[in-house]
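Section 5.1 Outputs to date
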Amino acid sequence: MKARWYLLTLAVVGACTETSRTPTTPGSPVTSPALGQVHVFWARGRSPVSPQANPADTVLWHQGNVLVATKTFAIFWGRDWSDPTFAGDKITGLTSFLDGWNNSHYANILTEYFGANGPVTTASTFLGSVIDSSRAPIDAPDVTPPAPEVSTLAAEVCRVVDVPDPDAVYMVYATTRFTPSTGYCAFHSWGTCGRHPMQFAFFVDMDTVSGCSSGDMFTGHSPGLASLASATAHELSEAITDARIGTGWWDNNGQEIGDKCAGVFLVSFVTFSNNSIWHVQGEWSNSAFHAGTGQPNQTGELGCLYGR
């Protein structure tokens, strides 16, 4: 699946309020423009960019920073998250996923990548989660320019987190519907909350979206959790290795390490450090590509790993 970068100006609410489970409304908003980009994980067959006929080989470093030791925080946004029928195993499952990422063999795939601030490590801390029962966008926001809706998603992080951690990726799992016109499963981006930098990823409701499905028949997870987990692996890996989109690791087709192995599920499941199991896509490894090892991606390039 081909990804595209969009340059956006994110107007983010700067007055953040501390919350426990239900966020309060910020006081007088202070608009703090932040320059960010969006990198999109398209549903199968929905990319607006024509696939490249030729493989692009390795991903290259573009002189920026990476997230050396990752932190994650989950925001479950939308009224339906308070409904046990909708939530099912998704909240507990994603909590286990993000907690088990730390020191996992899967996270170890990323340790060959580095930035101006040092190499990626397997260290990852799950900071917790919040259910925001306010109304999330009904349909997936447009991510094509000028896409003012994306700033709303950044503002959501500001609304539920007092002071964002610059080393964290805020995972926003919304009850927002997938729409064919927007055509994406998830994306990651960055911005600021006041003067505090942050990274975030946004995920639509994937319960019945075949184009976002991982086809999991191995773990016992619900289809919704299985799809969200694989999309989380994709977005978290890319947010770590290309935190400030375009300054990290990507190939000459504009694909980040998750894009290069998207849609390929050649291992039944991987086991995380907390013994949870997941049916997820592979992540791209330059070293495996050069050694002629790893699994092939959709263009036949060897280099997709499911652990190291």
